[in-house]
TrEMBL record, chain A:
It comes from the Eukaryota. One of its GO terms (molecular function) is deUFMylase activity. Residues 275-458 form the UFSP1/2/DUB catalytic domain. Belongs to the peptidase C78 family. One of its GO terms (biological process) is proteolysis. This is Ufm1-specific protease 2. Keywords: Hydrolase, Protease, Thiol protease, Ubl conjugation pathway. InterPro entries: UFSP1/2_DUB_cat (IPR012462), UFSP2-like_2nd (IPR049387). Gene3D superfamilies: 3.90.70.130. It comes from Cyprinus carpio (Common carp). Transmembrane segments: none annotated. The gene is LOC109106240. GO terms for cellular component: endoplasmic reticulum; nucleus. Residues 36-253 form the UFSP2 second domain. Pfam families: Peptidase_C78, UfSP2_N.
Automatic annotation (TrEMBL), chain B:
The keyword Transmembrane applies. The chain crosses the membrane at residues 431-453. It is found in: Membrane. The keyword NAD does not apply. May play a role in the trafficking of a subset of G-protein coupled receptors. This is Protein odr-4 homolog. Residues 402-422 are annotated as: Disordered. Belongs to the ODR-4 family. GO terms for biological process: intracellular protein localization. The gene is LOC109103045. Its main location: membrane. GO terms for cellular component: endomembrane system; membrane. Pfam families: ODR4-like.
């Protein structure tokens, strides 16, 4: 099995298995072994002949535990897993192709979604049913376990190997779930174990961690520390918070905001120059979103929202992206503004952005001052360093405008520089094509800035935490 | 533009041959299958004679029509509907009257048809879908002229008025209908929150309903193909009127434990129970589908409903029987008790299967008797197929050892006292209309069914 970011496919198997057990005394010594026995039964169930994988949006059914049988004759154990694609009906076959631009980067692995089912026909025996009654007072526990296993593979991997791998993954996940359930159980109170997938740097690749539902990330610090050690991850930035969970390429974001529109652009080809980009994921916030008409005054607020979205999605904070009102209130709370500021349409600048990031997110920022727009062309090194070490989006305000800088292409030798700008002044809908075509997210040269105005840049710093 | 009923010639023969005492009426059931375009009637059965103790009741009303025993007709309908495999159901009623009563016949039929539908559908574990036909047919036959008047009522609309319908006789209406079949492993764990009969029955019903929803939502393969969307059921059989061979299509059912309302929880659902009941075993299921371009998903729906119905019916029968034998204070006792098992028999001429349920102490003779009484058909005992569901091999005594149940805490189980007399030793009185039973007990059975599975 290959675990590399160059994998062509991710096979994702989801299903619900009901965990059920009857406990005479939830606080007694027997209860742990009863719970373990129930999990053991579930593990037997997934290794039994009755489990079936159904490939979503296709007529394909696979019985992985009967020496590989499938409902479609041409798919055998020797088939390459890529062969499965011809059977899958995509929802929007045509439009997917039209949105692909020639300069679009590789869109990532194809996700094949599968569902876990159990056959109830073709039983082993044929004894007619009976009623079996037990009259002890018991605590009846029922809990749906949300199984979710993912495997990264290359096109030529055999389908049979993929299915065997998925069965193994199911088994392991049940074992992990058992551990979590037992660890967090209090008497007859059970927390649902929830799996999360994370794409870690090589060689770990795509891994799955089970966390107890309802326990916030802040209380799972020790668990993450163990895992950081195990996977040799840096200890100063989060990889395993719930917000860091791998976003499957075929899943839409429920909130409707565009993520990282810049990846659809090709950076300018400057001789001898290197690319320094924002790291991780941010959402594009701009004028008129969320039914707020901030056209003409809200640009810095939107840039601030983009930055907040970055901290949320990298797992540093759990708070939602603040509204204009919340931003204004924060400034009143720190004493920077009078109470009547709230509800007004007053502009804010880099200093206010820094103050809000500190107040609402606990994030510190560096301020860079530039006395003339023309000077920005000389700030290549600072910006390159920032993107390399912190990798956070930069808010820049000056003249009468605020923008977000997402990266630079800079040559140390020639000093040539281009800026990747995300423009909050866009008033349209979340249309990627328009946003990239019309340059609302685009590469600009030094002439983009008002050469005579002074500018302040707010460079947010990553907190050191996991 | 009413409905069209295509009726088998055997039904015509039966209806024509009904004997009526002068001046009296005969009621009966019509069974078959409905599809959105047309309906097929394959069976007609007159209401069996109700034996009453003592003197015959004095005529209550002005006319024999008022004497029609609505309860009896509906009880008969319920019993017959339990004997029909999937795809087949009660489609309506017929009424034979002397010419002078023909005018009032329609009202009588209307009363009957609504009462019957209400009674049959009580306690059903699956919901009607939008595509289900809710029209029931009423057929009036004049005993002298043999003339028929056919009308339908929409039984889901209390204000429905009679709509005219076509009644056409045809040969071999169901002769080429494919039969779906499968054996289904059932393993349902139902927690009991109390021990009184009322609570037991409610818990059973809730638990079985959850299971029924899983079956309804399950993925289904018929003859190796997915039964999805609007694709036609491919039975692979050419329509050849000369072939009498009926195709059997194997069905396979795949379930998931998904329950939408539970899946949003972050913690387990824990109930303090006074015990639990498990329904465990294998049921054999059959369903027929008409061969007038049927859709695969209708076929899937038919077999799924049969799966749900057969489990529900036998649990109902078991509880009814328990009530009659032991009274309501006993309820279910601990241990393992066999549910009645399903046997199949062919109906003469059409060859369609009907089924019945055999208690452990019964024999094929009992089944044959019931088939004669309920379906008015003589089936030789050797034609009754008891091999499809295996006999439960243990003694059906209360407090007997429980077979290993994986999730239960091992040792301590409270057994209720072992009964000194095996309640099944005496031949269980037939809990539905039967030769041996008095009208009073039969009425009790009716009341019981109404009580336990009441909404």
């Amino acid at each position: 099995m290959v675990y590399s970011e160059e994998c062509d496919f991710i096979f994702r198997l989801k299903g619900i298995l009901e965990f059920a057990c009857q406990l005479d005394n939830p606080n007694g010594v027997q209860s742990q072994s009863t719970i373990s026995k129930s999990f053991q039964d579930l593990r037997s169930k997934v290794t039994s002949k009755n489990i079936v994988f159904t490939v979503c949006n296709s007529p394909v059914l696979i019985w992985p535990n009967t020496g590989f049988q499938s409902s479609v004759e041409s798919l055998t154990e020797a088939s390459a897993c890529g062969d499965i694609l011809q059977w899958i009906e995509s929802d929007d076959g045509g439009s997917k192709k039209s949105s692909k631009k020639k300069d679009k980067k590789k869109s990532g692995p194809t996700v094949v979604n599968m569902k876990l089912l159990f056959e109830v026909t073709e039983p082993a025996g044929n004894t007619a049913p009976s009623l079996i009654r037990v009259s002890t007072q018991q605590h009846c526990v029922k809990m749906p376990l949300p199984l979710d296993c993912a495997l990264s593979v290359t096109t030529d991997e055999r389908l049979e190997t993929v299915c065997t791998g998925l069965v193994e993954a199911l088994n392991k996940q049940l074992a992990d779930m058992e551990e979590v359930v037992l660890q967090y159980r209090k008497g007859s109170s059970f927390l649902v174990p929830q799996p999360f997938h994370f794409q870690l740097p090589e060689p770990a690749g795509l891994i799955t961690v089970v966390y107890p539902a309802g326990v916030p990330d802040s209380q799972l610090q020790a668990v993450r520390e163990d895992l950081h050690r195990k996977f040799e991850l840096p200890c100063d930035r989060p990889y395993l918070r719930r917000a860091n969970a791998f976003h499957f390429p075929d899943a839409a974001y429920k909130d409707g905001y565009l993520r990282n529109p810049h990846i659809h652009l090709n950076p300018p080809n400057i001789e001898d120059a290197k690319l320094y980009l924002v790291q991780g994921v941010y959402s594009y916030h701009h004028y008129m979103q969320d039914h707020v008409d901030d056209n003409g005054w809200g640009c810095a607020y939107r840039s601030l929202q983009t930055i907040c979205s970055w901290f949320q999605q990298q797992g540093y904070v759990e708070t939602a992206v603040p509204t204009h009102t919340q931003i204004q209130q924060a400034l009143v709370d720190v004493g920077d503004k009078e109470p009547r500021f709230v509800g007004s349409r007053q502009w804010i600048g880099s200093i206010e952005v820094q103050a809000v990031l500190n107040q609402l997110l606990g994030v510190t920022s560096k301020i860079m001052f530039v006395s003339q727009g023309s000077e920005l062309a000389t700030k290549g090194r600072e910006l390159a360093n920032h993107f390399q070490t912190e990798g956070t989006p930069v808010m820049i305000g000056g003249g009468v405008l605020a923008h977000t800088i997402l990266g630079v292409v800079w040559s140390e030798n020639t000093g040539q520089i281009r800026f990747l700008i995300l423009d909050p002044h866009y008033t349209g809908g979340e249309d990627l094509q328009t946003i990239t075509d019309k340059g609302w997210c685009g590469w600009k040269g030094p002439e983009f800035w008002d050469q005579n105005a002074y500018y302040n840049l707010c460079l947010p710093q990553r907190p050191k935490s996991i | 533009m009413g409905r069209s009923y295509f009726v088998d010639e055997a039904v015509e023969e039966y209806l024509v041959g009904i004997q009526t005492a002068p001046g009296s009426c005969v009621t009966g059931l019509l069974a078959g299958q409905s599809s959105p375009q047309r309906d097929f009637v394959v069976l007609a059965v007159q209401t069996p004679h109700r034996e009453s103790e003592g003197q015959p009741k004095a005529s209550r009303g002005v006319s024999p029509l008022d004497d029609i025993d609505v309860e009896w007709v509906t009880e008969h309908a319920k019993q017959v509907s339990r004997m029909l495999p999937g795809g087949l159901c009660i489609l309506g009623l017929f009424l034979v009257t002397p010419p002078e009563l023909s005018k009032d016949a329609q009202n009588a039929l209307k009363r009957l048809i609504f009462a019957m539908d209400k009674y049959i559908t009580k306690g059903r574990l699956w919901e009607l879908s939008e595509e289900d036909v809710t029209d029931q047919v009423t057929l009036h036959i004049c005993s002298k002229t043999k003339k028929t008047v056919c009308k339908t009522f929409d039984v889901k609309d209390p204000k429905s008025s009679a709509k005219p319908a076509d009644w056409k006789y045809q040969t071999g209406v169901s002769s080429s209908w494919p039969m779906l079949s499968c054996s289904v492993a059932v393993d349902v764990q139902i927690p009991m929150t109390g021990s009184s009969s009322d609570i037991t029955d409610k818990c059973m019903k809730d638990g079985l309903r959850r299971w029924a929803k899983q079956i309804e939502a399950a993925c289904c393969l018929i003859n190796g193909r997915h039964a999805l969307d609007d694709s036609e059921l491919v039975s692979g059989q050419k329509k050849n009127p000369k072939t009498t061979h009926r195709q059997t299509l194997p069905a396979r059912i795949f379930v998931s434990d998904e329950q939408a309302e539970l899946d949003e929880r972050s913690s387990a659902l824990v109930q303090l129970c006074s015990g639990s009941v498990k329904v465990r075993g294998v049921v054999h299921c059959r369903a027929y589908i008409h061969n007038n371009k049927p859709k695969a998903r209708h076929a899937a729906q038919a077999i799924k409903r049969d799966i749900i119905n057969t489990v529900c019916s036998r649990v109902e029968m078991f509880l009814e029987d328990l009530l009659i034998n032991e009274g309501s204070h006993k309820g279910l006792c601990s241990g393992q008790q066999a549910l009645p098992r399903r046997v199949f028999a062919p109906v003469p001429v059409s060859g369609l299967s009907v089924c019945d349920y055999m208690f452990p102490d019964e024999s094929t003779a009992d089944v044959a008797e019931r088939l004669k009484e309920m379906l008015d058909c003589k089936t030789p005992e050797e034609d009754i197929d008891t091999s499809l569901e295996g006999n439960q091999l243990f003694s059906n005594v209360c407090g007997s050892e429980i077979t290993e149940s994986p999730s239960d805490d091992s040792s301590k189980h409270v057994f209720s006292e072992v009964q000194t007399e095996n309640p099944k030793n005496q031949k269980a009185p037939q809990y539905y209309a039967g030769v041996a039973i008095t009208a009073a007990v039969a009425l009790l059975a009716t009341a019981t069914s109404l009580l336990y599975f009441n909404e």
